[in-house]
Design goal:
It is found in: Cell membrane. One of its GO terms (molecular function) is acyltransferase activity. It is elongated and about 85 Å long. The protein is 58% helix and 7% strand. It has 28 helices and twelve strands.
């Protein structure tokens, strides 16, 4: 069963199109873990009327921590060798979180951080499931010990007491998981409280199903085949768009429980299939294979200079992952797993030492990354005569120099002060907040007051507007919210494959209108991503609905005598630009996208055509020309990911944007 679970995850991560629901392998792992751990604890309590927490945790440390710590240390060294300095800080936090088994809580925090959604995948993000299990291992024995002691004192049957107490916890967690999958599935995916029920199913099975040997063989065999069918069906037909772990997760988890209940032997067809040497081998190395496969997937591109795009790439990843897992299993896991006489405290010493080493390494990585990235950023993000950025277009100089700023390795840092990276305060509204956040530039008594509203595509214009405010003496106010379009329509928030109604955004938009009507600026500029969407609708329908919502707000402002303008959507490159340009032998042409692919007729273009009162600030000629949208213009890297502008390039467009604003005011 471990082989089935880890192979599903492995195929999903290497060839996601082949097995789009392979992530359910994690759910199968949870059921197996709950089954094994609960069975162990029940038998110990029935045998000795207690549970030795010291022995239990020592076994967990010996079994899990050495291999996990070596994996994390290998990731840290690999990051130093192959990742950019700008990526070290976030990774170092994840390394520490993974070592302390709280990676899932860090991902919960980041799942509502719009910046994190466009970041490259972390090589340790798969530690979220191990974190859930470790937290389960802390809580479950304490709960069972408390229930067992109480049952003995009251004279209750032990197994019935366990079944009742653990059943209540399991059902409560299931109900909460279903609720969160509808309300806020993005962070809910990683929560321990939404996952305990999956481990609980395995625990309940081992308590209630001890008399399975008395069940007719053909019935048990039927359960086994049903379990395999349930796991296979969910792995084949599910996709990452499903909200998990809601009721959809019942299919693979109950399938795993059915297969455990069957206990098929080698005399049966299913038993013979599952007990073949390859399946036993993969099941034996499954823990190490789970640990190593994802870092191999993530580091494949920076090491080889190519994505995992072909069958050959995938085979290389699988082979390397299995080789590392084999070494990890038989050199590390087996070495520490079995305690020798007099070594009862050794696991704790080893665990503390490995964790401390990793924490020190991660701290050093953070400090070194900060120092290196800041130094490189300060040296390579200043526009000059050799790097005019958008100014090259005004001079009809189309030269896209190989020497460009900022460097690809640090381009992700080039976001401007609104993100609070240079000691200034972050002034962007977060996803869960319904309150307004303000960025102010220029004098309060300026003759011209401008407000820009929208999502991160409004934020990436703020460096240019800040520069304009300083030169022209205008007052610029940014009112922005992560992933939120300024529209009366109810949009959706998407994160890590899960979608939900973005209620906070709709409430925020109404508050923005009220604030604007109260303060009456001279001009309101609207900018947002062309990929905003409406729940349950096609892309064209979404854009039409969002445009109508923008039109409603624009008309309300126009009736109050406030001019409204939109900035045409900025291009969307097909690849992560800094990642592409950082590869060996990278070229601007290879990393750039055609105008036809990069530009889209989305909501802001649609509303500008429908509503005559809306002015249009068209900056697209400063991104795309001669049919292409190059990633470097005038010696400046245009993008810090696929679609957000570097602050350096945005500032180079300040004169042109100022001209566009003046035209909108006429």
């Amino acid at each position: 069963m471990r082989a089935i679970a880890v192979l599903a995850v492995l195929v999903y991560h290497v060839w996601p199109g082949v097995l789009p629901g392979g992530y359910i392998g994690v759910d199968v792992f949870f059921v197996i873990s709950g089954y094994l751990i609960t069975g162990l604890l029940v038998r110990e309590f029935e045998r000795s009327d207690t549970i030795s927490l010291r022995d239990f945790y020592a076994r967990r440390i010996r079994r899990l921590l050495p291999a996990a710590s070596v994996t994390l240390l290998a990731v840290a060294v690999s990051a130093w060798l192959w990742l950019s300095a700008s990526e070290w800080r976030d990774l170092s936090r994840e390394l520490v979180a993974s070592a302390l088994y709280v990676e899932n809580w860090l991902l919960v925090q980041r799942s509502v951080d719009y910046l994190a959604q466009d970041a490259a995948p972390s090589p340790v993000q798969h530690f979220w499931s191990l974190s859930v299990e470790e937290q389960f291992y802390i809580i479950w024995p304490l709960l069972m010990l408390g229930v067992g002691v109480l049952a003995r004192r009251r004279g209750w049957p032990i197994r019935q007491a366990f079944l009742t107490a653990l059943g209540v916890v399991t059902l409560a967690s299931l109900a909460y998981g279903v609720h969160v999958s509808f309300v806020d599935p993005a962070p809910g995916y990683f929560l321990t409280t939404t996952r305990v029920w999956e481990l609980g199913i395995g625990g309940l099975l081992v308590i209630a199903g001890r008399d399975v040997d008395g069940v007719t063989g053909w019935i048990r065999s039927g359960f086994g085949w049903l379990g395999v069918a349930a796991i296979g069906t969910s792995a084949w037909f599910y996709s990452s768009r499903l909200p998990f772990p809601g009721y959809e997760a019942l299919l693979p988890t109950l399938g795993a429980a059915a297969l455990l209940f069957a206990r098929v032997g080698e005399q049966e067809v299913l038993g013979r299939l599952l007990s073949t040497r390859p399946m036993q081998y993969v099941g034996d190395i499954s823990y190490s294979l789970y640990l190593w496969h994802w870092p191999v997937v993530v580091f494949y591109a920076p090491v080889t200079g190519r994505e995992v795009a072909t069958l050959q790439d995938g085979v290389v990843v699988v082979v390397v992952s299995i080789l590392l897992a084999h070494v990890s299993k038989y050199v590390i896991e087996e070495r520490f797993r079995h305690a020798r006489k007099g070594e009862s405290f050794r696991p704790y010493v080893i665990g503390a030492g490995l964790t401390a080493t990793l924490a020190l390494f991660a701290t050093g990585l953070t400090f070194a990354g900060d120092q290196r990235a800041r130094a490189e950023f300060e040296e390579s993000s200043l526009v000059d005569n050799k790097h005019p950025g958008a100014g090259a277009i005004l001079n009809l100089d189309w030269n896209t120099n190989a020497d460009f700023i900022p460097k690809a390795e640090i381009a992700r840092l080039d976001r401007g002060p609104a993100y609070g990276l240079d000691g200034s305060s972050r002034c962007i509204g977060s996803v869960p907040s319904k309150d307004l956040s303000f960025c102010h530039y220029g004098p309060e008594d300026a003759k011209l007051n401008i407000v820009i509203v929208g999502d991160s595509h409004a934020v990436h214009w703020l460096p240019a507007l800040e520069k304009i405010a300083g030169i022209r003496g205008w007052r610029v106010t940014g009112i922005t919210k992560s992933s939120c379009a300024f529209t009366a329509a109810l949009t959706q928030f998407s994160s890590r494959g899960a979608d939900r109604d973005y209620i906070e955004c709709q409430i925020w938009g109404q508050k923005v209108v009220e604030w604007i009507l109260e303060h009456h600026p001279d001009l309101v500029i609207i900018s947002h991503s062309p990929r905003q969407a409406i729940p349950g609708t096609s892309y064209p329908s979404s854009q039409e609905a969002i445009a109508e919502g923008v039109r409603k707000y624009a008309r309300e402002l126009d009736r109050a005598g406030i001019r409204v303008a939109v900035i045409k959507h900025t291009p969307w490159q097909l690849e992560d630009v800094p990642g592409c340009m950082a590869r060996p032998n990278a070229s601007i042409d290879a990393c750039s996208t055609t105008a036809q692919q990069a530009l889209s007729t989305a909501s802001l273009a649609i509303v500008a055509k429908k509503e005559a009162s809306i002015r249009v600030i068209d900056m697209q000629n400063y991104f795309c020309f001669k049919g292409d949208c190059p990633v470097v213009i005038g010696g400046v890297l245009v993008y810090r990911d696929k679609h957000h502008l570097t602050a350096t390039y945005a500032r180079s467009m300040a004169p042109m944007l100022a001209d566009g604003i003046e035209s909108a005011m006429r």
